[in-house]
Design goal:
Elements (H helix, E strand, L loop, with lengths): L1 H23 L12 H22 L7 H14 L1 H4 L8 H5 L7 H7 L2 H10 L19
Helix pairs in contact: 2-7
Length: 142
């Protein structure tokens, strides 16, 4: 019983300390400063595991047609290049100021499961600047 009481007391102290730290304003939320290595690892691991766990639920993206490829290039140019850049095109001002930096999709797409890319484009990623296009586009266009 003493162990459980001590464990609950330790959790309460940690929670109180976390709240004090949060309300003190000591944590720097500026996008111009990188995350600490531990927080970076936690966020990247949570992101990657979350995407991997949910991508199978979406299923494979629909096969492209010549028309959807042409339309996709137009959408990519309009909505993605500013942050991600493209081969021969550097990121725009918004993309350069984001933290975490948007990935280079020409490199990322070569080693990533297409279902995961499809899931990210459809659902977005919170607190990264990556919007969800599922509400504004159908699956054939995403």
């Amino acid at each position: 019983m003493k162990f459980i009481t001590g464990f609950i007391a330790a959790l309460a102290v940690l929670a109180a300390g976390g709240l004090i730290y949060m309300y003190s304003g000591a944590y720097d939320v500026a996008a111009s400063n990188p995350h600490s290595p531990i927080l970076h690892w936690v966020l990247v691991t949570a992101r990657d595991r979350s995407i991997a766990a949910r991508a199978d639920q979406v299923g494979p993206p629909p096969p492209p047609s010549p028309n959807s490829i042409k339309e996709g290039f137009g959408h990519f140019d309009e909505m993605c290049v500013a942050c991600h850049g493209a081969p021969g095109v550097e990121r725009g001002e918004v993309g350069k100021g984001l933290n975490p930096k948007p990935p280079d999709l020409s490199r990322l797409s070569k080693g990533t499961d297409p279902r995961q890319l499809f899931w990210v484009i459809k659902n977005g990623i919170r607190m990264t600047g990556m919007p969800s296009f599922g509400a504004t586009h159908n699956d054939r266009i995403i």
